[in-house]
């Protein structure tokens, strides 16, 4: 593989499916791209030319997707749909998948947690992209690894540790 191919930048499409994003956070597409690039840089060493989509959705769309694909009849903050299992991806395949974020849920969580919408969106895009890269949080060790990576990526973006307040509340 030549050097030009290795340095090919990621292609990140941001699709606005809910106009509320434009009203609430006009720079949401750029926030999403910045967060995704940072997650790809730290979470996927050697992945060049990755392609993914981020969908700026509302709670209704995310609730439908959550019900259809996870059997849970309510919205969630972020869903990730990987194009293939990481172990099954062939080297040239760089189509990672889709990250879908729900405005209503994210806005409510940000208010409840005393965070800006920008910071919470940044965190959830990073989280979603890491899922596309094969990271998970089903087991304690996996969760610690994924959360530590999220915290490191977010710190580089100037976003406070989103887990610190949770730990303080449980400590």
Topology record:
Elements: H1 3-6, E1 11-16, H2 20-24, H3 28-43, E2 51-57, H4 59-70, E3 78-82, E4 95-102, H5 103-113, H6 117-132, H7 140-156, H8 164-170
Parallel strand pairs: 1-2, 2-4
Antiparallel strand pairs: 3-4
Helix pairs in contact: 3-6, 3-7, 5-6, 6-7
Are there runs of 5+ residues with pLDDT below 50, and where? Answer: 1-5, 167-171
Order of helices and strands: HEHHEHEEHHHH
The profile of the biggest β sheet is:
4 strands, mixed
**Class per helix and strand makeup:** alpha/beta
| Coarse shape | globular
What's the CATH architecture name?
3-Layer(aba) Sandwich
Please list the strands of the largest sheet in the order they lie side by side: 1-2-4-3
Fill in the CATH topology.
Answer: Collagenase (Catalytic Domain)
Give the radius of gyration: 16 Å
Give average pLDDT, whole number.
87
End-to-end separation: 49 Å
How many independent structural domains?
Answer: 1
> How many strands appear in the DSSP assignment?
4
CATH homologous group name = Metalloproteases ("zincins"), catalytic domain
Determine and state the CATH class: Alpha Beta
Share of residues in helices: 40-55%
Treating each run of at least 4 consecutive H or I residues as one helix, how many helices? 8
What does the model show?
- With 171 residues, the chain is α/β, with parallel strands linked by helices.
- The chain has one domain: 3-Layer(aba) Sandwich (Collagenase (Catalytic Domain)).
- Helices cover 51% and strands 15% of the residues.
- It is built from eight helices and four strands.
- A four-stranded mixed β-sheet has the order 1-2-4-3, with helices on both faces.
- Helix 3 (28-43) crosses helix 6, helix 3 (28-43) packs across helix 7 (140-156) and helix 5 packs across helix 6 (117-132).
- It is globular.
């Amino acid at each position: 593989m030549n050097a030009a191919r290795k340095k090919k930048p990621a292609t990140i499409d941001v699709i606005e499916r809910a106009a509320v994003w434009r009203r609430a956070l006009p720079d949401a597409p750029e926030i999403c791209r910045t967060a995704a690039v940072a997650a790809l840089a730290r979470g996927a060493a050697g992945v060049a030319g990755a392609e993914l989509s981020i969908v700026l959705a509302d709670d209704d769309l995310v609730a439908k997707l959550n019900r259809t694909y996870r059997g849970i009849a309510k919205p969630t903050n972020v869903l990730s749909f990987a194009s293939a299992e990481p172990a099954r991806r062939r080297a040239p395949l760089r189509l990672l998948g889709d990250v879908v974020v729900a405005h209503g849920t994210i806005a409510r969580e940000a208010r409840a947690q005393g965070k800006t919408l920008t910071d919470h969106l940044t965190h959830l895009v990073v989280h979603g992209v890491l899922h596309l890269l094969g990271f998970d949080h089903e087991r304690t060790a996996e969760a610690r690894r994924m959360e530590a990576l999220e915290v490191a990526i977010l710190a580089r973006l100037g976003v406070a540790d989103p887990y610190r307040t949770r730990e303080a509340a449980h400590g």
